Amino acid sequence: MRPEQLTIYNIGPFQGLHTINFSELGDIFLIFGKTGAGKTTIFDALSYAFYGEVPGGRNGITKHMRSHFAPEDEESLVELIFEISGRKFRVRRSLPREGIGVRSGKLQIIPEEVSFEEKTLSGWENRTYTKKTDTDKAIVDLIGLSSEEFSRIVLLPQGEFSRFLKQNSNERKEVLAKLFPVSQYSTIIDLVRTRTREATLRLKETENNVLSLQNDTQGLLGESDIENLKLKISEYSNIQKNLRTEISEHTTLLEKARATAQKKLSLESLRNEQTQLLS
Questions:
Q1: Which of 5, 136, 235, 260 matches a 20 to 30 Å C-alpha distance to 249?
Q2: The pTM is what?
Q3: What is the pLDDT of residue 226?
């Protein structure tokens, strides 16, 4: 997932309309500013666009995201254009707010609204469902991460990175495996294991055939039959040798696949730590 453009309107310290065009920035960039300048608000807005909540253990702050400087008759919203797997999407989510009911004329809470679109050759095509919960689910399914996973893996907000570093190796491996494409190595490992099992079974079957021939024909054959039997045994011996070689090759591939997957996870972990230190 790559964000392209974030638009916020009356969110946090940002009164009115503000737009950040991430597509004009490089692969690595720094967000900095004084305390209270709105750095965290940018990440809150990204998370809110996807999930309708802010990252980490700060979910209760969502209702306070509306700018205190916003006029009462103006809404507060977040709009995010992002790309994933070569496809471009736009999600727009407005904060719930107080308003006067059109029919009742009384003060009431206007609920959160969300719209979801995909860019096609003909323009932006609506992906919004009748039920808001269905639209929310469609966005989560597309991202492939829950709100908690997005917070822990992508954003790593203040305090969360320290928590990530303190996790045991299995927990960190699970997080990194979710983020980085190591499934291909798992597929290779499973395939090699299956082929190794099959080769081992064939080897055992061949050994049993040799023993069976020896037991069934012992003392019952003439000279010519014995020569034929020796040829059969030699043939099975060659099959055994080939199967042992195949099993050895599969075992080597299995170890290489495991080592490659482990190295990739370790490398991505180091890159992640370096990125956090630089930022």
A1: 235
A2: 0.58
A3: 60
